[in-house]
Amino acid sequence: MPRPKTRIQLRNSETILEAALDVFSSQGFRGATLDQIAEVAGLSKPNLLYYFPSKEAIHQTLLTRLLHTWLDPLREMDPNGDPVAEIMGYVRRKLELSRNFPRESRLFAIEILQGAPRMRAAIEGELTELVAEKALVLQRWMDEGRIARLDPVHLVFSIWALTQHYADFDVQVRTVLGEGHDPYAEAGAFLETLYARLLAP
C-alpha cells in the first residue's frame, strides 16, 4: 500500500490543483501548460511533476472532483419529499454552486464544448444514470398530479441552463445588469417565481 501523504505533500497537491483550476478554467485544457500551472502555484515545474505526472493527470483529478460536486445537489432530491419544495431546493443548490464555484462551472462547460473527451465515460455512466433515476421520481410526481406534466429530463436540463448561466456568462450578466446588482439574489427570486408557476399542476 502507498504511504499516506504528509501534511506538506497534501498542501502542495492542493496548491497545484487550485492553480490548475485557475489556468484550465480560463485557458481550457488545450491552452493550458504545465509551466503556467507551476507559475501560478509558485512551484517549479519539476516539483509539480513530483505530485502529478502530466497535465492530463491534473485535469482528470479536477474533473473527477467536479463531477461529484456537480451531482451531489441532484442526489439530495428526496423522492419522499414535497415535489415543489424538492425541485426548488435543487434549483437553489445549483444556483449556490454557480455562485461559490464559478471556475469549476467554466471548467465543466469548456470540457463539454470540446466534446467531453476526458469525461465521456462519466457522463455516459454516473451522470446519465442519476438523471434517469431522478427523472423517474419527477415522472411519478407528475403521474400523481402533484406537479405539472413536463418532460422530466428537459426539466433537469432547464435547471442546469438557468443556474450555470450565471457562472459561465458572469461578465455578460454583470455588464447587462450594471453596478449595484447581486445577480444571484435576483436570479434566486426570479427562479422561485418561474418554477412555482411552471410546476403548478
How would the blueprint of this fold be written?
Elements: H1 7-31, H2 34-41, H3 45-51, H4 55-75, H5 83-100, H6 102-113, H7 120-143, H8 152-168, H9 170-177, H10 183-199
Helix pairs in contact: 1-2, 1-4, 1-6, 4-5, 4-6, 4-7, 5-8, 5-10, 6-8
What can you see in these coordinates?
There is one protein chain. With 201 residues, this protein is mainly α. It folds into two domains: 1-53, Homeodomain-like (Arc Repressor Mutant, subunit A, Orthogonal Bundle), CATH 1.10.10; 62-199, Tetracycline Repressor, domain 2 (Orthogonal Bundle), CATH 1.10.357. It is built from ten helices and no strands. It starts with 6 loop residues before the first helix and ends with a helix. The model has no long low-confidence stretch (mean pLDDT 92).
Give structural attributes.
Arc Repressor Mutant, subunit A, Tetracycline Repressor, domain 2, 10 helices
In short:
This protein is an all-alpha fold and 201 residues long. The chain contains ten helices and no strands.
Total number of helices: 10
Number of strands: 0
CATH architecture of the largest domain: Orthogonal Bundle
CATH class of the largest domain: Mainly Alpha
Q: How helix-rich are the residues, as a percent range? A: over 70%
The CATH homologous superfamily of the largest domain corresponds to Tetracycline Repressor, domain 2
Report the average pLDDT across residues: 92
The description of the largest β-sheet is:
none
The SS-based structural class is mainly alpha
How far apart the termini lie comes to 56 Å
Report the radius of gyration as a whole number of Å.
Answer: 20 Å
Integer tally of domains: 2
